[in-house]
Amino acid sequence: MEDEQMSEGFEGPGQPASRDRQMVASLGRGLAILSAFRTVQPVLSNSELAAATGLPRPSVSRLTHTLVKLGYLEYDSEWGQAGGYRLGPRVLAMGYAMRGGLTLRHVAMTHLDDLAQLCNGLAGLVALQGHGMLMVEVVRAGHAEIGNLEAGVHTPLESTAMGRAYLASCSQPERDRLVALLISQRGLNPDQLNEVVGRACDEYRELGACTAIDSWRDGNCGAAVPLYLKGFGSRMVLTCGATRADVSAQRLREEIVPAVRDAARKIELEYERGSRQRSR
């Protein structure tokens, strides 16, 4: 079939094509559909899903039909002219199972709350997904006005403190892979991107953290530190963000960065202690 050939090796948005014969391409396409939904776009039509995933429209129609039948999507006939889809209860159940089983989340919650209160903004746990960062857990201080960041939201790698902290702390081969991905998938200027990554690495060596001021959204700033968790599958990042009205550039470096570093070390120690207790 034509669309089967076009989608051979498809691994989802932002992922390079793979010729791995163990890969199930149809599963990858279905997961790409589920990954296309965002907090700011909770309902998407087949056309919008095709644009977001790069998949042919006929494939998208069959995939959404299947996902509705299985309970992973729900169809909303009143959305737009042709109707749309939203994530279904089975996805929600998977999310709760993942977050409930994430021991790191329980360890980190108190520290996230303390950081959010300190900067009158938000604090969160973040993981790499594709060529961006995925907010896994977010804690806000009251009605902090710092955009729509919440669990499930994706943010850029190169322009956020959390993304820069990941880039600066990963291995050189992994950094090179991500830079190449940003250039090929996002069309970023190689010279400008390498300059940003170089500055992030320099800052990480100096501060043990990375910062961002007005680089992603005007009026916002943030600091982030990678978490080194023994026995944890993937690298996580601890981040803290606020508006410039609440945190100046000087306060960000002199107070917020040390607080995020200190919280990261405490989370690492508490997680390791809990892991030892669970293994007994």
UniProtKB/TrEMBL annotation:
Residues 24-89 form the HTH iclR-type domain. One of its GO terms (molecular function) is DNA-binding transcription factor activity. The keyword DNA-binding applies. Residues 1-21 are annotated as: Disordered. It comes from the Bacteria. InterPro entries: GAF-like_dom_sf, HTH_MetabolicPath_Reg, Tscrpt_reg_IclR_C, Tscrpt_reg_IclR_N, WH-like_DNA-bd_sf, WH_DNA-bd_sf. The keyword Transferase does not apply. GO terms for biological process: negative regulation of DNA-templated transcription. Keywords: DNA-binding, Transcription, Transcription regulation. Residues 90-273 form the IclR-ED domain. This is IclR family transcriptional regulator. It comes from Orrella marina. The lineage of its organism: Bacteria, Pseudomonadati, Pseudomonadota, Betaproteobacteria, Burkholderiales.
